[in-house]
Amino acid sequence: MIAPFAYTALPMRVVFGPGSLARLPEEVAALGLGRVLVLCSPEQADTGRTVADALGERAAGVLPEARMHVPVEVASRAQELARGAGADGCVAVGGGSAIGLGKAVALAHGLPVVAVPTTYAGSEMTPIWGLTEAGAKRTGRDPRVLPRSVVYDPELTLTLPPQLSVTSGVNAVAHAVEGLYAPDASPIVSLMAEEGVRALAAALPAVVADGADPAARGEAQYGAWLCGAVLGATTMGLHHKLCHTLGGTLDLPHAPTHTVVLPHALAYNAPAAPRAVAALSRALGGASDPARALWELAGRLGAPRSLAELGMAEDDVARVADLAVADPYANPRPVTRDGVAALLHAAWAGEPPA
Ligand code: NAD
Q1: Which CATH architecture has domain 13-157?
Q2: CATH 1.20.1090.10-classified regions of the chain
Q3: Considering the domain 162-349 in this protein, what is its CATH number?
Q4: Which of its termini does the chain have fewer beta carbons within 10 Å around, N or C?
Q5: What is the pLDDT of residues 285-309, one digit of tens each?
Q6: Quick one: which atom of ligand 1 is closest to the CA of 125?
Q7: Model-wide pTM > 0.95
Q8: Best of 113, 119, 126, 153 to mutate for ligand 1, by most ligand atoms within 8 A of CB?
Q9: Cα(122) to centroid of ligand 1, in Å?
Q10: Interface confidence (ipTM) of the complex
């Protein structure tokens, strides 16, 4: 039986395919934009300049200063530069950090964002923004920060290192997993989630075997698009809460933290989410225990499987468990302090999910 649901489609345009970066100028022009500021991370300054060159006279400059979690100082510099250059929009090229910077400018000035994603994080599909000030990250939802147009060109992901490809891919899978059991799940979102997990689980081993394999890169980015759309449409639960807390308090790296925690969070929630487990089982080739299958996939692909190897001390388990249960949030299984502490300890030690 179809359970009652509500679903709001987010207004945006997606252009997908190898070589689609060449279509960026027409996407920018179609939005009526004549002077866009290009935003990227320092490590991708060359990519930023390539994008600016492709835009020609529509480019107002390149700011290669995006950093993880959008520090307010960087956001202010981007906002001032955009105003000073008379920019009427931004093109954010890169991972969640660059796209997050574009969202910060949109939030302050209402300038439209065109996103050109080069990881699998999925920020380009969501109206969620984040800003970090004095070590504290604030997040919120605002329709103004949702990119108007997203250009997915798998050729831009060929340089994504294997390890980052895997952890970023599992970060995407995490959006789908939590979307499947979200309080605001719906049939269309569940279809996207199942297909997104299937595509990523199939593509990531091929990406690791050959990072320049265009078919594998295309399928991985297709999966990341679907999983990002799930993130944008639903409310995340225990897994995202834990990763947010671990990142915010211990400064653990975003995508590897998601990779380590996901099998454990899924194992915790599985008894209360049978339909999600059934969908994930189908997506993972009939796996009887999707949490265990994800843990084994991470191991096979050489990804980190313990929070200890990401730099977390065993003593931090209790502190993070306290924080993770401090405010109530939707989750299919009741979140208890002892349950979270046991989950975190297993993830810290690198044990299989139980
Ligand atoms: P990132 O954007 O910080 O990128 C990681 C590193 O990889 C950077 O040095 C970047 O320059 C490099 N890189 C990216 N693409 C590359 C490529 N194709 N080739 C070579 N190097 C490349 O990391 P991320 O995991 O994409 O994003 C994480 C951030 O995004 C976090 O701050 C997270 O909170 C945020 N995020 C936000 C949302 C949202 O909806 N608001 C969703 C997901 C993630």
Answers
A1: 3-Layer(aba) Sandwich (3.40)
A2: 162-349
A3: 1.20.1090.10
A4: N
A5: 999 999 999 999 999 999 999 999 9
A6: 40
A7: yes
A8: 119
A9: 9
A10: 0.99
